[in-house]
Fold this sequence. Notes:
By secondary structure, the chain is an alpha/beta fold. It has helices at about 20-30, 30-35, 55-60, 60-75, 115-125, 155-160, 175-185, 210-220, 260-270, 280-290, 310-325; strands at about 5-10, 80-90, 95-100, 135-140, 145-150, 195-200, 225-230, 235-240, 250-255, 270-275, 295-305. Strands 5-4-3-6-7-10 form a six-stranded mixed beta sheet, with helices on both faces. The chain is elongated and about 100 Å long. The two termini are about 40 Å apart.
Amino acid sequence: MLNFRNITFVNPIFLWLLVLVPILVVWYYLNQEKRFPTLRMPNLNALGEEGSLRGQLSVSMPVLRALAFITLIGALARPQATLKEQNIKADGIDIILSMDISSSMLAQDFNPDRLEASKAVAEEFVNRRPYDRIGLVVFSGEAFTQCPVTTDHKIVKEFLVNLRCGLLENDGTAIGMGLATAVNRLKDSKAKSKVVILLTDGVNNSGYIDPIKAAKIAKEFGVKVYTIGVGTRGVARLPSYNINGQMLPKLTRVEIDEDLLKDISKKTGGKYFRATNENSLFMIYQEIDRLEKTEMEITTIKRYSEEYLHWISLAVFFLLLEFLLRYTVFRSIP
């Protein structure tokens, strides 16, 4: 089968012979009358206005010979099909997203609220890390592993989509437990780089693990921690409900322990970020994506298959077809 995709010619100089095709076509039609005898008649009324179908098709015979000539030139140019293969060896990074799901994450200083904005940006981050193992830890007054590190990012994103405040019974902000649970999931990892991205909007007020102690444990196991403080500066609107179930928004002061988050990231070789709106949160994840580059080794292998036999077969087909038609259907009597 003749395939023109990914075709290269080893001897392209032979393609210059194609300039002979229009010259031969012109020569053929200029000398056509010399090859056939003419019959002079006073008029053509006896022959009708149109020639027969056989006569009309006979003029296409030289086309078959021209196609045979063109394909033979193509065969001389030695066409090859290029088949490419890529072997990708990725030295991936193990990443745990540790996310605060306390009730304060429902504050509406982000659109529609802090939690939904954080989920959307985290999902986009996962999409940009195809070769890394990613897991998910959530915390409020306690901490829980939603998804261990995995390369099945579809599962990670499904867990992200289903996150909601109140998933854990105890409300509050247990930053130490959120970090310690994430580190526990990474401590036995064989990856060269282990990262925790801890996102919270509050002050550590729950849990039995001190955040600084959790940071020291992270350092011992070679886990780098990036911390993100989420929330505008000043006050934010937080939805609340009365006894009749009616929503009565109230204003609450935004309190983020930035000194603690900075200390955690500094001790582990990470970095602290403050997100005051959706755009700044998106830019933070982009910067973390740039800082934590996955090392990849891409080997490209090229294989070639000779295609000239297909071209020769096609030329032979055109010549045989022309020969058969000339001496059967379009045979002329001398």
